[in-house]
Amino acid sequence: MSGLKLFRTDTTNSGMTEVMPRLADAEADVQGLVEAHMETLLGVRFLASEYSTGPVHGGRIDSLGLDENGAPVVVEYKRGTDAGVIHQGLFYLAWLMDHRAEFEHLVRDRLGVTAASQVLWSGPRLICIAGDFTRYDVHAVREHRRSIDLVRYRLFGRALLGLETVASVSGGVQVARRARRRPVARAAADIQGAAMVELAGTVDEVLLGLGNGVNRVERKTYRAYQRLRNFACLCPPQRSKLLVYLKVDPKDVDLVPGFTRDVSGLGHHGTGDLEVQLRTPKDLERAQELFRASYAAA
């Protein structure tokens, strides 16, 4: 797994025992494990398994889901390395885009009317989970205009699963983002003041600059920053502050009134249980350690 090694401490003999990685015995084992814990592992709400695309199309989508931002997700699995997994996934993604009403009906049945009305059709995603990928696979995803994540898995012993993002491309989301960014920023500047808009632009640069493979997803009420799953959500500037929500456990943070707040269980736009309030560039400097922690957790 890209040179990653896992060791178990042996307190009895004061030594270390390496936990050897392995592939699943069958593709269905990987699929079953991910589907049972899809929201925890991928930030995707599970909708259906082995979903039939009908007699004309003649296929079965391994897993269908809806991500944290409302984007439709196709998940395809392979036990080992398979050169066809990306093309197979794109084949199903194309079918999905031609059957939006059917997908929304599925979402309505599983998650309710509100979720179905907020499906983000501008950012459908394909997640391929396999034992490994070739350099040709990594190159191929960069040639497509869809959002594609290549995720390598390994099993360690009987109780540990490792997931590693090999490549991540945001596809059509980036095009929509660039097209909308300037008018949204100009409208915000007219209403809320140039200082907060400028600070929001700096926050955007900081979050995108945390590492490779950060995708930015635009929703009406927030902007999500994603590494396979969301790690930060930035709300539109208010008159005197910005709100950023992070995937950091508030119990692990020394909360500071007026700067950080535990919002677990409270309704808010975006995802994350830790609210960070930014009013000045100095606040942004204080927040960067929290940004990095959330990025690492994703």
If you had to describe this structure to a student in words, what would you say it looks like?
It is built from ten helices and 15 strands. By secondary structure, it is an alpha+beta fold. Strand 8 and strand 9 form a beta hairpin.
Major sheet description: 7 strands, mixed
Class from helix and strand fractions: alpha+beta
Number of strands: 15
Strand content: 25-35%
Mean pLDDT: 89
- Helix proportion range: 25-40%
What is the overall shape? globular
* Series of H and E elements: EEEHHEHEEHHHEHEEHHEEEEEEH
Q: How far is it from the N-terminal to the C-terminal residue, by CA?
A: 18 Å
User: Gyration radius, to the nearest Å?
Assistant: 21 Å
Tally of DSSP helical segments = 10
Low-confidence stretches: 173-182
What's the SSE blueprint?
Layout: E1 6-10, E2 15-19, E3 21-22, H1 27-36, H2 38-42, E4 44-52, H3 54-57, E5 60-67, E6 72-78, H4 85-97, H5 100-111, H6 113-117, E7 125-130, H7 135-142, E8 147-156, E9 160-169, H8 172-192, H9 194-208, E10 215-218, E11 223-227, E12 229-234, E13 242-246, E14 260-262, E15 274-278, H10 281-297
Parallel strand pairs: 6-7, 7-8
Antiparallel strand pairs: 1-2, 3-8, 4-5, 5-6, 8-9, 10-11, 11-12, 12-13, 13-15, 14-15
